[in-house]
Each structure stands twice: as structure tokens, then as C-alpha cells.
Amino acid sequence: MNALPMTPRVPTASQRELRVVAEACSWAAAVALFAIGFNAVRPTSLPLVAHTPYQTLVPCPDVQAEVEAVPAVRALADPHAAFWVDARDAAAFATTRFGSAVNLPYDYLDPTPPEALIQLGKTILASGKSRVWVYGDGATPDSGEQLAKEIAASGIRNVGYLVGGAKALLAGSGGAQ
In whole angstroms, what is the distance from residue 146 CA to residue 123 CA? Predict the structure, then answer.
């Protein structure tokens, strides 16, 4: 008897595609089960279903107030005539600051709290100064310019920002005071 040689069975294209999909689903299920199990044993596990809606839209402050761009040389001509506000973060303020500047850190995504602006207004009024100079990091966009616009939009007049920020101010004054 003549036996035909056995040829390996080659899967068709649709069978190969089905196998790939089945393997992908198996891996996805295995990874999902691992993640759910890992989440379950965490001390502070993440909820699988949110109890409150997530805040996905964070409004950036849209401030349209006009402020004056002031070169450091002009601001330093009479530094005691103005009230100084530092818009940089607390760490930068603690490292270097100019004169009697007050720190009001500016955050690009979170508007300055109204209470902080009211308190700043009271402090400016108590100082008796007629101008407010705000300086920031000097980057583009400059945190000092943005905070100056927020301050002006809150009703405080004669607000300007230092072009070049703290770097220009400290270079022009010979260092922090």
C-alpha cells in the first residue's frame, strides 16, 4: 500500500487573524485581572467607578487688564516709590528677593484666590505707595506679567511688570537686597 506523505496543515489567513485576536484578548484580560488584583491589595486603592465626576476642564485665568511693561532700569531709578510684588514660587522668593517685596506666587492654571488679592490691596493701601511693580521669573510668558494683569483686573491701579523679571532686576541692582 502506498501511503501519502503527511503534509503539515497550514492555517488559512482568516484562521491566523482569529488566533492573533484571541491572543490579544487573552493578554488584555490577563493584564486587566492583574491590575484589578493589584489595586485591590493597595492600601489606598483607586475606585473602579468614580463617585463624583472628574474635573477634566480646568479653566485658565482669562485676564484682559492692561499693565505697563517697565524696564528694570526705570524701576530701579526710585525703588522706594513703588510697592513690589514677587510672582515667583516661595522657594525662589526665599532664595532671592528684592527689598521689601511681598510674595504672591502665580500659577498659570489656578487663578489667584480673591482673598489673596483683597489682602494684597489692603497691604498696598497701607503702604501709601502709588505704583505697584510685579516681577516674576522673566520667562515667556512671564509670571510677573500674568500676575500684574490679575492684580490690575481686581481693581488695583498703576500696576506694571518688570521686563526680564527677577533676573533683570537683580542684575540691575547688583544682587538681592
Answer: 20
